[in-house]
Design goal:
Elements: H1 3-15, E1 49-50, E2 57-58, E3 66-70, H2 71-77, E4 92-95, E5 104-107, E6 110-111, E7 123-127, E8 130-132, E9 145-152, E10 166-172, E11 180-188, E12 192-202, E13 207-218, E14 222-224, E15 229-231, E16 234-248, E17 251-265, E18 270-271, H3 290-297, E19 312-313, E20 322-337, E21 341-356, E22 368-369, E23 378-394, E24 399-416, E25 419-420, H4 424-435, H5 453-460, H6 475-486, E26 496-514, E27 519-537, H7 544-552, H8 561-571, E28 584-602, E29 608-619, E30 622-623, E31 635-637, E32 640-642, E33 659-660, E34 663-675, E35 679-691, E36 693-698, E37 703-711, E38 734-736, E39 738-752, E40 755-768, E41 772-773, E42 799-807, E43 810-811, E44 816-827, E45 830-831, E46 841-842, E47 845-855, E48 861-868, E49 876-881, E50 906-910, E51 915-923
Helix pairs in contact: 3-4, 4-6, 6-7, 6-8, 7-8
Length: about 900
């Protein structure tokens, strides 16, 4: 989307605000008995009572940037998990990639990227005060929700777990001492069925209970042509039971238990071409890119390389994306008024298990796969948390004080069975035949090592001296290397196990000094200690890799280094080698950080609030749970190129390469809030500086994790070249590497009792600084990240506008009401890939949802029709380097400036198409 088009679109959006208005805080309350436990709504437009500061306050009185989404807004938008919040909160973006278990949430353009469970979330997710280990866990069903609060910027002095970029707090409906409940049935296209319900009421005068349940089933959005099935389906259920014990007005005990089960196939991906991003031009042309010939020659249909938004995918026959997710947990929250202070205790245990089979290369050719089952990248989180808060007032209510403590112990087990597929060896040799620029007559996918008889004779030197081998006397050894590579099939990890034990404790305080009746100063401080223990045991069946290393390593110091190196790289990709079979490694790390906040706020009148703040946020360091990060396939020891773990002193001596450091955010913010019965306005301007920003990216072969920092010294472009050894920075010159600045505007308008309009706009510049390095010691930036210096972060659009309109007119005097609801999100251009290759660019777009219906008296029943993505907008969530699929260099067609990945081709996870259906709901 061009700048002029964006400005025109934004202008049209504002002028058409009744059609694109945002109702992040409902102006009309939900009627009926089942709404009795909702929080009291403030009288002013857009105001809702929130607990973002651990005190019940009107949103307009809270001196932090927070969006509060009411239960009615969630119901109207059709939200069943945190992804739908995208439509209602302009500074938030939630997406999912290779597994919904690892969805990513971003606030102000900042979030944790990728599918590596070793990285904690920059945006923390809490449900009823309980921290969830990774933000993707919030993609589960939620049951009936009271409200969701999205806090922007660093958090740590109010919540048990710290967060460097922000947090999402989901507050569910609690039990009521008045009998009631609801039932809801949805049916839509793709055979979508969602049934949900709840019942609540008293058991005794002091004990109430509530039970929520949800069942969802839906066909997938992708059609697997090869296996004649659908992918990205829904098949899940959720149950939550609660008890609320209130023996008197001073004591409340809430016990929650929940269980989620998902049996689904996720997540398919398609090849992308110039129809998705113009920079992909010619990459899928077999006359220009040799990798396409290899894929076609090994069975990929030509249709796989066109029309990505047909959502037809062509994985390997027999491969599956089937996965099982089981989540359960219990928590107990005690709120006790001790007289002079209130004590809150939240004790919780969470158990999360998820595995996901996959055709990991996303192609018809069997290159990489994970067989479904308990070893298919199975992530198991077992987390115990305890939070204590004591708060009260002192000095004649001049001071509102809060002190707290937090403890968490988490066990993470990751079991993997990633293997080379049954065609890996042939694919790899075909890739090399093309990459080495051999004559077309040498290329023969049906022959051993992809070499025709002529090609084999020439390369092995059998026709010398009439026709000499390009490898000279080493021809037979190189051809033997081709043959060994050709034999690598169906080998790899056999239940490789990674374990991480994390113990985290913190002490925090948050204090509000009422200097005058209108001027407050808030000071908060937190001390956090985090200690992680790591261990891994490998079981790898690739016996060919060590043979290749033994036979080809001597050539690395000769003119044949390129050929030998390519054969070793593809034979030992990602350190898949039986040299690691039975090998165990371990490591540990510990860190302590002080973080905090300082806020000055002033209410010049009851309707206005002005504030300024500084906050320091923190996210713990950890371990990259990926063997590929231990070492590169070829490295230098004492000036000599070598390949084996033994030559490096063993795998244990390399375990430090898996560590990454903690992430720090220094954030500054000024804000203004206005609230009146018909209109509210919240404005925040922010500037954030991230040091040791944790970045996870896939370079087409392996995953990389680096801490991104900036260098105050001019690196003269060395951070933008292809060398891994240039671009170092003196340690005393290293500073923040990521900056995020911008302005957020949220407004609610209530021109009539049955009409509410909301608008949101975020304009931001979230970017890497120039002159980047790879950690706080100033090591060079990885060449795969050479597009980063001076560029915007991935999934960080410069401008996002959201809006919603809710109209509930009465229908005569019958007690019936109508419903007309519409929401929209308009986004400017952004790049979806963490390495920022231009092939991953996403043009700006708009997504519009709607709902119309009729509701009975006191909303005891409702019939509604809904549509999501009304205009069937096609766009990508995340684009990525398709694993191992790059051809021979062809700089005449693919110059480095426009094609930093050369002939690398790309795939993408697509956003959902248009869905529509009907909802029948009853309340009692």
């Amino acid at each position: 989307m061009t700048k002029s088009a964006w400005l025109l679109g934004a202008a049209m959006f504002v002028l058409a605000s009744p059609g694109f208005a945002q109702d992040t805080q409902s102006a009309s309350s939900t009627a009926g008995p089942a709404a009795a436990d909702a929080p009291a709504q403030a009288a002013n437009a857009g105001d809702i009572i929130v607990t973002a500061t651990r005190r019940a306050e009107a949103l307009s009185d809270v001196p932090i940037a927070v969006s509060a989404v009411s239960s009615e807004s969630l119901q109207n938008s059709g939200a069943s998990d945190i992804r739908q919040l995208n439509q209602l909160a302009p500074s938030l973006l939630v997406s999912s990639t290779g597994s919904e278990a690892n969805g990513s949430a971003r606030i102000r353009g900042i979030g944790t990227v990728g599918d590596n469970p070793g990285l904690e979330s920059s945006v923390a997710v809490f449900v009823d005060g309980v921290y969830r280990s990774r933000s993707g866990i919030g993609l589960n069903e939620l049951g009936e929700v009271d409200r969701i609060e999205v806090l922007r910027g660093p958090q740590g002095t109010l919540f048990g777990r710290n967060a460097s970029a922000g947090l999402i707090h989901i507050i569910t409906k609690k039990p009521s001492f008045t009998f009631g409940g609801f039932g809801e049935l949805n049916y839509g296209n793709f055979d979508y069925v969602r049934a949900a319900g709840a019942v609540t009421g008293p058991i005794t005068e002091t004990l109430a209970a509530r039970l929520d349940a949800v069942y969802v089933n839906r066909d997938g959005f992708y059609h697997d042509v090869t296996n004649d099935t659908d992918v990205n389906d829904r098949n899940r259920y959720f149950v939550r039971g609660q008890l609320l014990y209130e023996p008197n007005e001073d004591l409340s005990v809430r016990i929650i238990g929940d269980y989620t089960h998902r049996n689904e196939k996720c997540c398919g991906a398609v090849y992308i071409d110039e129809t998705v991003a113009g920079a992909n031009r010619n990459l899928l042309d077999p006359t220009k890119n040799t990798i396409i010939n290899a894929l076609l020659g090994l069975g990929t249909p030509a249709a796989a390389f066109s029309d990505p938004f047909s959502r037809n995918i062509y994985p390997t026959a027999g491969r599956s994306y089937k996965g099982i997710t089981k989540v359960w947990g219990v928590s107990a929250e005690i709120d006790w008024n001790l007289g002079g202070a209130n004590l809150t205790s939240i004790t919780a245990y969470r158990d999360y298990t998820s595995n996901q089979g996959s055709d990991t290369d996303y192609s018809t050719v069997d290159i990489l796969y994970r067989a479904p089952g308990k070893a298919a990248y199975q992530r198991e989180f077992r987390t115990f948390t305890q939070e204590l808060r004591l708060q009260g007032s002192a000095f004649d209510n001049k001071l509102d004080w809060l002190v707290g403590a937090y403890f968490a112990h988490e066990k993470l087990d990751l079991t993997d069975n990633l293997k080379f597929g049954n065609q890996y060896g042939r694919f790899a040799t075909c890739r090399l035949v093309g990459a080495f620029g051999f004559p077309a007559s040498f290329f023969s996918p049906g022959s051993t090592s992809c070499l025709s008889p002529t090609g084999r004779a020439v390369l092995s030197g059998a026709l010398a001296p009439a026709v000499n081998s390009p490898f000279g006397a080493a021809g037979p050894a190189i051809v033997a290397g081709f043959d060994r590579l050709d034999s690598i099939n169906n080998v790899g990890d056999n239940n490789a196990l990674y374990r991480q034990n994390d113990t985290n404790y913190a002490f925090f305080t948050h204090n509000i000094f009422h200097v005058t009746d209108t001027f407050d100063v808030t000071l908060g401080l937190r001390y956090t200690h985090d200690r992680k223990k790591f261990a891994a045991t490998f079981n790898n069946t690739n016996t060919i890799c060590p043979v290749q290393q033994a036979n080809l390593t001597p050539f690395l110091a000769t003119p044949l280094a390129a050929a030998a190196g390519a054969l070793i790289n593809l034979s030992c990709q990602g350190n898949a080698t039986s040299e690691l079979n039975g090998v165990s490694i371990d490591d540990r790390r510990g860190e302590s950080e002080f973080t905090g906040t300082a806020v000055a706020s002033w209410k010049p009148s009851p309707d206005w609030l002005v504030y300024a703040s500084y906050s320091r946020g923190y996210k713990a360091g950890g371990f990259n749970l990926d063997r590929s990060a231990l070492k590169p396939p070829i490295f230098i020891v004492n000036g000599v190129p070598t390949t084996t773990f033994a030559a490096a002193g063993g795998a244990q001596s390399l375990v430090g390469n898996l560590q990454f450091d903690q992430e720090i955010n220094d954030a500054y913010e000024i804000g203004l809030k206005y609230s009146s019965p018909m209109f509210s306005l919240n404005i925040a301007a922010f500037h954030q500086r991230f040091s040791d920003f944790q970045l996870n990216t896939f370079n087409g072969s392996v995953f990389l994790v680096q801490n991104i920092n900036g260098c105050s010294q001019d690196l003269a472009g060395a951070d933008r070249d292809t060398s891994a050894t240039t671009g170092a920075c003196p340690k005393n010159q290293v500073g923040p590497g990521v900056f995020s600045s911008g302005v957020e505007i949220e407004s609610a308008i209530r021109p009539a009792r049955d009409l509410s309009i909301g608008l949101g706009l975020t304009v931001s510049n979230t970017h890497y600084r120039h002159d980047l390095v790879g950690n706080s010691d100033g090591v060079p930036l990885d060449p795969a990240l050479r597009q980063l210096p001076g560029s915007k972060l991935s999934n960080a659009p410069a401008a996002v506008a959201t809006g919603s309109l809710t109209w509930t007119p009465p229908i005569g005097d019958s007690g019936l009401t109508g419903l007309f609801y519409v929401d929209g999100r308009l986004t400017s251009d952004y790049n979806t890939g963490s390495d920022l290759f231009p092939q991953k660019q996403q043009d700006g777009y708009a997504v519009v949802n709607g709902r119309i219906g009729i509701r009975g008296p006191e909303e005891r029943w409702a019939l509604e029709f809904f549509v999501q993505n009304l205009f069937n907008q096609d766009y990508t969530q995340v684009a990525f380097n398709t694993p191992f699929q790059a051809g021979a260099a062809n700089p005449a067609v693919f110059p480095a400036a426009q094609y930093p990945g050369a002939t690398q081709i790309f795939s993408a996870f697509l956003a959902e198409p248009r869905t529509y259906g009907v909802t029948l709901r009853t309340r009692f």
